[in-house]
TetR/AcrR family transcriptional regulator (Azospirillum argentinense), 228 residues
Amino acid sequence: MQKSRPTPPPDDRTAQTAGTPPVRGRGRPRAFDRAAALTQATRLFWTKGYEATSIADLTEAMGIGSPSLYAAFGSKEALYVEAVNHYRKSYEGLVWGRFFTAGTAREAVMGLLMDSAAALTGCRGDIPRGCMVTLSAVGSEGHAELGEVVRSARASAVGILTERLTRAVAEGEIPASVDLHALARFVQTVQAGMSILARDGAERAELEAVAEVAMLGWDARVGGRPSP
């Protein structure tokens, strides 16, 4: 009697023909982009403020679940601190760029105010209006530690201005009799007011006009003439 040959196992094509698909490996899950998520959180805090921004708002904007948010950033409070630091590193150059390269203190301040008029009104890219740090009310909303973070950021602007004005005195541009702290506060106050107006819808040209008027005040004070 002749032996029958054993039937070979079906290959993948045979299995597919029989209706059984071959086993395929799973695709690699998309990696979490922490930097991109932080940017989205920053924009949300910038636009809505700390208190009005919920965890649900954040997870939707960042494209992650709440467990991932807490795993990556620890808490909403910690995320806000990171967002403030991210804002300063990523966006403050839009208003301080010419300040640091100008040859005189007057040119530096004029550049700061004019660049603020452009940046605060969204003319320097797809960014929210106003300054995230200036407009933050987190301290008055019952979050003392977060309030100290933004107050420190605001204070740094006065320090930068005062340092530049001190150099201008040494170079003979500004009389030694000028109250440099008051002058630095004046510039900061003008810029802060511009930020509020930008959030309310003021246009770039309006804020540039404010900057020009502010420089008349600068000239009157620095030139030794009483302000009108």
Observations:
- Residues 94 and 111 are 11 Å apart (CA to CA).
- The radius of gyration is 29 Å.
